[in-house]
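dude i think i finally got it to work??
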Amino acid sequence: MKKIILLPVMSMYALTAFCQQDSLLKNFKFRNSNYKAINLNIGGNGQFNKTDFIAGTTKNSGGGGSVGVNYYTAQSTDKILLTASAGIGSYFNFAKSNNTGGVSRTNAFSVNPNFNVLNKWFSNSKFIELGADGTASVFTGKDKSNIPGTTSKQSQLNYDFAVNAGIGTGRLENITDMQNALWLSKALQASNSLLHPLSASELNELGRTITAANNTRVLDGRKRTQFVLTTIDNFFQQKGLIPKTDINYFSNLNDIVFFAFNTPRLSGTEKFIRFTPAITDYKNDNMQNNNASKYEGKANTKSLVLSTGFNKYTASSLIHQNNYGVSLNFSYNDVDFSDRYFISGTVTSEVKGMLKVKQASVNLFFEHAIYPNTRTIINFNLQPQLGYQDVNKQTSLFGQVDLTGSLNYFISYRTRFVCNLYGIYRNNVQQIQRPVELLPNAIQLNAGAGLIVSI
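look at this
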């Protein structure tokens, strides 16, 4: 009789727990006043080798380096959702080769600035969004040799700039901190580190505490670790939720906060209408033997995209996530390109072209993610696209289906087992960039697996 009574009681408890997780994840609101971060990257490399052949000795040497800086800021309030980033990176390399055929030197240098900003203003359930993004690349290279007829110079400049404007309803919230709050509560309860199971309000407050800890800027890495752990520990201490702070308590706290997967997990529904004008410009010059011969390539693309649709991200439980959406897209692309070849400053060959591409398509996506624990993610993503296009008044249907899957399985802190699946079906798809071309129809399926070991 006791077993008969116990079974429905335990079932109700489990159901209530899962419903509570589901509700907390769906209703969590990620809020931070103003988070800022600056990343500086510096790197270098060098190499030298000497090889003795019968015909003579070959020596190769070279080196290179890179430096970059990136700035990121984010703000999430009830009225505003702002993300912005900007950065610039540069790279240089040089090499020298000395063999019986002669001496050759190679030098190259590139600079790559970029920026991205998107701001959404919310009023009740409606929003207006405005943003812009851009990238550029400047490259120059030189190959010089004492062998006649083998000197060349190359320069390349390209940039992309786009403006994003839209209106809509709904909001997508980042629920990663709430996910980790639930994992932390579950781990502490399993190790008997809690006086009682956390209530819904306490779990929600724990999620907000994790957000506050992670989004407070502390420059010193060790001090930041101390700050994050102290902030979350203060929550449990002030609420009187823990009987003692033993090694099990702190190991679980450190493990979940710093070593759990923190890939962004969203919740909510968003309906939108977006308008995106963009421009892309490309220029490439390649000169041989002091202008004895030269190639000059240019391409300019102007585009307009209008899209409307909805996205829905649903946290079915702590372990399962279902995301799906559909959009109707209209685009117009105007591509102007030219290729010119010179001999001693005189044009010997020239090809010019204009391509006007109009497309209307329906895009769908479905994604299912499984989080069996804080160390493992299984992900499945399907994105079909079907549309109608007009390429210089030549009309046709086109379609593409992308399939991806992945498994990232935790073995140890230094070892992971990874599986990847990628498949594509493509029919009559036009590539609207440099070079402009009709991509070959294809069916591809690739799969792989392996171990990632950190030494």
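The chain is about 20% helix and 65% strand.
im so relieved honestly
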